[in-house]
Write a structure and sequence with these properties.
20 strands; alpha/beta; 43% helix; 6-stranded parallel sheet
């Protein structure tokens, strides 16, 4: 059957576009002698269909608010997105492609947000990109419900995600995709590179899931058995997916990994290593690609160039936004503020008022309750605060009067305006979805679980820190103080472990004022995530002279004079959280014996470590021996030059909290005895 000239031209064009991706991928990986050419070569036609025909984006402005979001969840295939960004006109030069995986290039081994223009999220740990995409799509849906008015559709974009077998094998994909179905995220479209190959070879012996039926069970729309090397077929599947009004869509694209490589296509050999000079030569011959390495013909650039079309799309949106602004000026200003990630002008006063109110009331409550008290003020003042819990709402106390439960209409899929998400028992999924919400813009996500379950969330917490995203983790039941649930739930090493994550602020407040300040600091930390470690048990308020220095991570809480001993301190007791009260009581016991000590509360070691040397010396004078007290592992505290640490280096026990504290030596008497031993008394 003869093809018309137009059809032939289109076919030739798509082949040229796809082969440009293949050429750049194999050349860059070969130059670096490192990387993964298989996925980019195998997904080239899928990329042509999406990026060439559907993706609404503007290479000149990667941060345009209503752009479609694209996530490469199988981030090891990073040359796919780098090729797409370069070819379509983003600020990613051919020189950067040549510097693939080299120091300080814009083309690192896995895509990194903030490094490469057009990259929406840092991917590589498989399954998390897909989960970020769920968060991105949720944010779009909630913002559309909140800000769109009548015919004014200022938030109206899709989230597309490429994924592979590895993403689906990771358990987090189940957590995230089940939620995407429950939330009816109809503008989420996932394209699955079903090539049957992973690093170890054919996946059949270890991956036998019926993926289409699995996703159908989640409530997804599934388009199965699409030829991933047929641009027209993928194009039609995407068009069909975009018509969905109540379900996310999975498009199962059957592909051959390393398509085009005569001797390696369809094998694990092409997955994660350079093709080699001879195989690249053979691949060029097989594809009919006559150009030298890193040479892309002008007609390929022309076919891929999205700059003019992208600029027109954004101009059209901007005109529509100005019409929206004319009718809804306050909403428009609020939308712009929130997309910029700026807090309202009056937030600083709200933060001060919350801390002062806590100080004035001086309540004896658990710090998890202190957190809820602070959240009542902050969620009322910040409509962008989007809360949640991994099936522990009543224990984490993350819900407030301003944050009713988020629900979706069974018939329309529309959200009800709620701002508290029931994530179910999905700690890892919650953490990575929150990363996606933060990356989208417009919301500040926070979510709660028990501190010991931070182990489930840890890699997503690390990714938030790496990506510099404002995500807030509420971790309650922070120590043996939770009592009878026993060692499976009692955190021992978790505070120290979280403090090791660069760019993560960890707070373990001692009372209501410290908790309010911790929350304010977390909300103001635009470029880092925070973890709040909170007690189950009630903690008395610790009287303090002022509130200003709490935000510096550590401060002098009590001098010897405050317990009637008018002499210079002979030692410093450093304490966090529930152990601050032990330090204060030990200070009193020691004062009776004529021993003068200073008590320093250190709610955030990570924040304190960023203070200048003068302040650090002021709080912890070099001449004074230091004794740390925390119901956790002792190793962490030696970094502060401590002479002794009252801690716990074993797992806990199942018993009432008071019994456990005595059993493990967390008593004022033991702290006082430790100080005396250090001083030789």
């Amino acid at each position: 059957m003869d093809m018309s000239a137009t059809t032939l031209s289109t076919s030739q064009n798509t082949t040229l576009m796809a082969n440009a991706i293949r050429a750049l991928a194999m050349d860059a990986v070969q130059a670096a002698n490192s990387g993964h050419p298989g996925a980019p070569m195998g997904m080239a036609e899928i990329a042509v269909a999406l990026w060439g025909r559907h993706l609404r984006h503007n290479p000149a402005d990667p941060h345009w608010a209503d752009r479609d979001r694209f996530v490469l969840s199988n981030g090891h295939g990073s040359m796919l997105i780098y090729a797409l960004l370069h070819l379509s006109g983003y600020d990613l030069s051919l020189d950067e492609i040549k510097r693939f995986r080299q120091l300080h290039s814009k083309t690192p081994g896995h895509p990194e947000v903030g490094i490469t223009p057009g990259v929406e999220t840092t991917t590589g740990p498989l399954g998390q990109g897909l989960t970020n995409a769920v968060g991105l799509a949720l944010a779009e849906k909630l913002l559309a419900h909140e800000f769109n008015r009548g015919a004014h559709r200022i938030v109206d974009h899709h989230t597309y995600v490429f994924l592979g077998d590895g993403c689906l094998m990771e358990g987090i994909s189940h957590e995230a995709c089940a939620l995407a179905g429950a939330w009816k995220l109809n503008k989420l479209i996932a394209l699955y590179d079903d090539n049957g190959i992973s690093i170890d070879g054919q996946v059949d012996p270890w991956f036998i899931d019926d993926t289409p039926r699995r996703f159908a069970a989640y409530g997804w729309h599934v388009i199965d058995d699409v030829d991933g090397h047929d641009v027209q077929a993928v194009d039609a599947a995407i068009a069909q997916a975009k018509r969905s009004t109540d379900r996310p869509t999975l498009i199962v694209c059957k592909t051959t990994i390393g398509k085009g490589s005569p001797n390696r296509a369809g094998t694990a050999k092409v997955h994660g290593e350079a093709l080699g000079v001879e195989e690249i030569r053979a691949t060029r011959d097989a594809l009919g690609w006559v150009h030298d390495p890193f040479v892309i013909p002008a007609e390929a650039y022309t076919a891929w160039d999205a700059r003019e079309a992208g600029a027109a799309l954004q101009r059209d949106w901007q005109a529509r936004f100005e019409a929206y602004r004319a009718e809804h000026p306050e909403l428009a200003a609020e939308f712009e503020r929130r997309i910029r990630g700026e807090l309202p002008a009056g937030f600083a006063q709200v933060a001060v008022d919350a801390a002062v109110a806590a100080h004035t009331k001086a309540e004896t409550v658990a710090t998890r309750k202190a957190s809820q008290i602070a959240l009542e003020a902050f969620t009322a003042a910040l409509p962008e605060l989007l809360g949640g819990s991994a099936d522990l709402t009543g224990s984490n106390l993350t819900q407030t009067k301003s944050t009713p439960a988020l629900r979706f209409d069974a018939a329309t899929g529309e959200p009800n305006g709620g701002r508290h998400i029931n994530y179910g028992v999905r700690e890892f999924g919650m953490a990575a979805i929150m990363n996606g919400i933060a990356l989208h813009g417009g919301y500040i996500p926070y979510g709660g679980t028990f501190l010991t379950f931070s182990d489930y969330s840890r890699n997503a917490i690390r990714m938030a820190a790496l990506m510099k995203q404002r995500v807030i983790h509420v971790f309650t039941h922070d120590s043996i103080g939770l009592g009878e649930d026993g060692p499976t739930h009692q955190s021992i090493e978790h505070a120290a472990s979280l403090r090791l994550i660069p760019n993560l602020d960890v707070w373990r407040p001692a009372d209501t004022a410290e908790t309010a300040v911790a929350w304010a600091c977390a909300l103001q930390s635009k470029h880092r995530p925070s973890a709040l470690l909170l007690s189950r048990q009630n903690l008395p308020y610790a009287p303090k002279a002022g509130l200003e220095d709490i935000a510096r991570g550590a401060y002098v809480l009590a001098e010897p004079s405050e317990v009637g001993l008018h002499k210079k301190p002979q030692a410093v007791i450093i304490a966090t959280g529930s152990e601050v009260q032990l330090a204060l009581h030990a200070q009193q016991l020691l004062a009776v014996q004529g021993i003068a000590v200073r008590v320093v509360s250190m709610p955030s070691t990570t924040v304190f470590d960023r203070q200048d040397a003068a302040y650090k010396t002021q709080v912890l004078p070099a001449r004074l021996p230091r004794i740390a007290v925390e119901a956790g592992v002792t190793d962490f505290w030696w970094k502060y030059g401590c002479a002794a640490v009252v801690g716990i280096d074993t797992y806990g026990e199942s018993a009432p909290a008071g019994v456990l504290f005595r059993h493990f030596g967390f008593t004022p008497e033991n702290v006082a005895a430790t100080v005396r031993a250090v001083l030789g008394h």
